[in-house]
């Protein structure tokens, strides 16, 4: 089990190089095919409306700057992955918004890599919630890279957030290709007896045994905390020096509004290390 196709979001951003470097590292590690996708930001619905009402169509010349911006980002992506020795890659320019365009492309990838929303940089999506939207709608694991910090290595020490939920189960299962290569894996269970019938007699032991059958050795860490779980996870990650957090992503979507669970919202806002999420 390994990632054979990795999709990375490409945009004109000061954070693009760090994200692409991480994507290239994973692609080289598994000899995966790397796809860089840049969305122009023009909604697909404009084209649909134009086909039904040609008189309302927007002239292509008016939109040339959108194509030029996407093409410039893709050129930077191609130059960087070539320099980093990625053997198999391609780039795609897609006429769509970032959320829907990336979600569609994610159907044909094993892993999607996006950047955390930087409040000091123009948002790559209309609502500034690209990581959340793709996580909730793509049915693929999403690796979110923080906008602050440098992450030369990924997955040497991995922290698994385990709460017995379906979302956490999916996230951990999706992370198995990374866990197999890790030097150390820690599974954290916070306040394990707070809810009835969530865990077995030894919280975390069942998941540790499941992963052991995949050849993954796991250290189970049970902790009681008065902190909210999001901040407890980030604090633990810093204390034990992990370089990747794996967790379930919680939330739902109402039309275009993404409504997140408290832990997911905290992590996506305050993350200090790459986070792999699945819903």
UniProtKB/TrEMBL annotation:
Domain UspA span(s) in chain numbering: 3-146, 157-278
Pfam families xrefs: Usp (PF00582)
CDD domains: USP-like
Transmembrane residue ranges: none
Annotated SUPFAM superfamilies: Adenine nucleotide alpha hydrolases-like (SSF52402)
Similarity remark: Belongs to the universal stress protein A family.
Name the record gives this protein: Universal stress protein
Lineage of source species: Bacteria, Pseudomonadati, Pseudomonadota, Betaproteobacteria, Burkholderiales
